[in-house]
Design goal:
The structure holds three protein chains of three kinds. Chain A is mainly α. Chain A is built from 23 helices and four strands. Chain A has a domain of about 280 residues: Ribonucleotide Reductase, subunit A (Orthogonal Bundle), CATH 1.10.620. The longest helix of chain C is centred in the N-terminal third of the chain and has 10 residues. The chains are: A mainly alpha, B alpha+beta, C alpha+beta.
Chain lengths: ~525, ~120, ~90
């Protein structure tokens, strides 16, 4: 090789410092706290922003260059998948319902994250934190775009994916992710980073990504797998931002500790409750199963999380208050959630079904202490009812938890036969919760959660009908009116997988014998 | 405890009584987890309690095989988790039920699908 | 003592990176799963630009690893010549 004649240039650390600190200035025409009004109101004390260690150092030039290359490769895979009719290579059409759940409930959160990081990327006085947040904002918009692009191919062939932005703001179960993120991005910048960067993208991230991506890999969906790998590399930068922010705050002032601990308690629990949807997906919606929710929880939460909180103990941080109850729930929440969507499938734009015998056997194996006594009998009963033409649909709206907004399907820690009820009074009104932890979250910030837009309550208030709807008319069908407001195609997007268009179409395309099959 | 905020953080609660056509009541049937969660219904305060059990609950729970076997004279009632004796001749309101109250009932001897409490 | 790890998509771009890591980090262990190669190492893992350049025979910008990177665990210390993961903060 020729001897390189290298031009003198700045090293990586210096280039990055020049871009961030070097382009920063403290304002003098206006006072700093007027230009950055959100930086101190949460009570977090920062004495020296110079102590912020950049979690990664991508200059804008490097960022565009390498993200651009990733995009080209990813879109090439998506295009190849489309050209090769990759949708015919999936295990079976029930798998697509996992993608419906993803595009309906997860993808919109990428867009909210984009907005949230854009906001905090303006509000921190520390330049390093601002730049990292701004880059993450671009990453999150990228995720929204690439997920939409990848799953749009399936939208050509299957129902339940065509109207997700409209559904996100209206459909009952989507208020769960929506309210989670609105709680986060209406908080201050330090809480936002604790909620999203740390609690969700560091502590809990593997519990979102691994189930969906390994589920995709095992069910023949290489397009989604490739998206997943491509996004995870962005996530590795996000994770490092999360842990850096926590350590920075803890090291700046001991007074920050109780605030951070409280945020960790709140956001661990809120994140855990949000992951209920993933638990259900993992145990019930993957025809070729990978690992159970319980196994994933043991590996990624109890394993990695345990080590993390040991590491943070030297700052005085303890494990989140809800940790033990979350661990206890690993045997139950997937079954409770599936039952909820089975009950209310008339109102949800994806399909549910009773697992077949092989799948029930897998569930027995993965949940040896609980499945056969608590959950198998009702699933078998539901199957019998369906076989005689009486597929069970719950026709009465459920009670929801005010904080997490999930139907009150969760049971007492230690007794999975008893629904857990908690209540409190605030300014003369009663409020209800699924757990001690959702109740505590309310108790600390009631002014936030009295604003909860609870879908069931909004329906009863008459806010979920299209303009011009007259409920006093004879023969008024409130469920039909709500579905009209949702713009869900009744008989196409909803109801059981058996007999659905998705099932019929897929059997035809694959040339399978069109009779209902057991796989 | 108050929400930490920039400026005044006070908003009208979304679920006060006047926003609904009737008070909300939450009802749960213990030991019958086939129904994934307790239900929520707007019921006028003048509704006789007997109409709740005679006309409303069959529509809610009638699909369950245990429902037809309920002996309403043996049913145990709870309000906010505490034992409670409703008077079926009186209205919900006269029985002390208000907006966003929660009641549960247990039907002794009826233990769900195959005794699994579903 | 805790492991750090780094994972790459299994493709032609990551092949020389993996080779370089395993050559420079004798205690590192690699595991293949569908589409993915994960490398675990006790305490610390270092990727050196010079080693990769030796393998591929051209100049290499260490930040090119971002194109094939999937995920990692540990604190990053990087400059133009090396990218190190460790638990030192």
């Amino acid at each position: 090789m020729d001897t390189r004649v290298s031009k003198k240039k700045l090293g990586l650390k210096d280039r990055y410092t020049a871009m961030t600190r070097g382009l920063h200035w403290d304002t003098t025409y206006q006072p700093m706290d007027k230009v950055f009004p959100y930086d101190t109101y949460e009570g977090i004390k920062i004495h020296d922003w110079d102590k912020w260690e950049d979690p990664f150092r991508l200059t804008m030039e490097a960022y565009w260059k390498y993200q651009g290359e990733k995009e080209k490769k990813l879109y090439a895979v998506i295009d190849a998948f489309a050209q090769n009719n990759g949708q015919l290579g999936i295990s079976d059409a029930r798998y697509v319902n996992a993608l419906k759940l993803f595009i309906q409930g997860v993808t919109p959160l990428e867009y909210y994250a984009h907005r949230g990081f854009a906001h905090v990327g303006r509000q921190f006085t520390g330049a390093g934190a601002r730049v990292a947040a701004q880059m993450q904002s671009v990453d999150e918009l990228r995720h929204y775009q690439t997920e939409t692009h990848a799953i749009s191919h399936y939208n050509k062939y299957f129902n339940g994916m065509h109207h997700t932005s409209h559904w996100f703001d209206r459909v009952w179960y989507l208020s769960v992710p929506k309210s989670f993120f609105e709680d986060a991005y209406s908080s201050g910048p330090f809480e936002f980073l604790t909620a999203v960067s740390f609690s969700f993208e560091y502590v809990l991230t593997n519990l979102l990504f691994v189930p969906f991506m390994s589920g995709a890999a095992h069910n023949g969906d290489m397009s989604t797998v490739t998206f997943g790998f491509s996004a995870q590399s962005d996530e590795s930068r996000h994770m490092t931002l999360g842990i850096e922010c926590i350590k920075f705050m803890l090291e700046q002032d001991p007074d920050n500790l109780p605030i951070i601990q409280r945020w960790m308690d709140k956001w661990f629990w809120r994140g855990y409750r949000l992951l209920t949807l993933v638990a259900m997906m993992q145990d019930y919606m993957l025809p070729k199963r990978v690992m159970s929710w319980k196994e994933a929880w043991e590996m990624y939460a109890e394993g990695s999380g345990g080590a993390l909180f040991k590491d943070l103990a030297r700052y005085g941080i303890r494990e989140p208050k809800g940790w033990k109850d979350a661990c206890e729930g690993k045997d139950h929440i997937s079954h409770q959630a599936w039952n909820t969507f089975y009950n209310y499938n008339a109102a949800a734009p994806f399909h549910t079904w009773v697992p077949d015998d092989e799948e029930l056997a897998w569930l027995t194996e993965k949940y040896p202490e609980t499945f056969d006594s608590l959950y198998r009998p009702r699933l078998q009963y539901l199957r019998e009812q369906q076989a005689i033409g009486k597929r069970f649909y719950n026709n009465t709206l459920p009670m929801l938890c005010t904080t997490c907004q999930i139907p009150m399907c969760f049971t007492e820690p230690g007794d999975a036969t008893k629904i857990a009820y908690r209540e409190t009074e605030h300014l003369g009104d009663k409020y209800h919760f699924c757990s001690d932890h959702c109740k505590d979250i309310f108790a600390h910030e009631p002014e936030k959660y009295v604003q909860s837009w609870l879908p069931v309550h909004q329906i009863y208030q008459g806010n979920c009908f299209k303009p011009g709807t007259d409920p006093s008319q004879a023969g008024f069908d409130p469920l039909a009116a709500v579905m009209d407001y949702y713009e869900v195609k009744v008989g196409e997007d909803n109801f059981d997988f058996e007999g659905s268009q998705d099932q019929k179409n897929f059997n035809e395309w694959r040339g399978d014998d069109g009779l209902g099959e057991d796989e | 405890m108050s929400t930490v905020a920039l400026g005044n953080y006070e908003f009208a609660p979304k679920d006060v009584r006047q926003n609904f056509p009737a008070p909300l009541l939450y009802i749960g049937w213990e030991d019958h987890l086939l129904f994934c969660a307790p239900v929520c219904l707007p019921l006028p305060g003048e509704t006789p309690f007997g109409a709740l059990t005679g006309e409303v609950l069959p529509g809610v729970y009638g699909a369950h095989p245990d429902f037809a076997r309920i002996d309403w004279s043996q049913v145990l009632w709870f309000k906010s988790g505490q034992p409670w004796q409703p008077d079926s001749t009186k209205s919900l309101q006269e029985n002390g039920i208000g907006h966003k109250d929660v009641i549960r009932f247990r039907t002794p001897g009826l233990t769900g699908i195959g005794g699994s409490l579903s | 003592m805790s492991n750090v790890f780094i994972a790459f998509q299994s493709n032609e771009d990551s092949r020389p990176i993996i080779e370089a890591i395993l050559a420079d980090n004798p205690h590192a262990v690699s595991v293949h799963s569908p589409g993915l190669i994960k490398i675990d190492a006790p305490d610390e893992l270092c990727i050196k630009r010079a080693t990769i350049e030796e393998i591929i025979g051209r100049r290499y910008d260490l930040q090119e690893i971002h194109v094939s990177l999937v995920t990692l665990s540990g604190y990053i210390d990087e400059d133009d010549d090396q990218f190190t993961l460790s638990w030192k903060h």
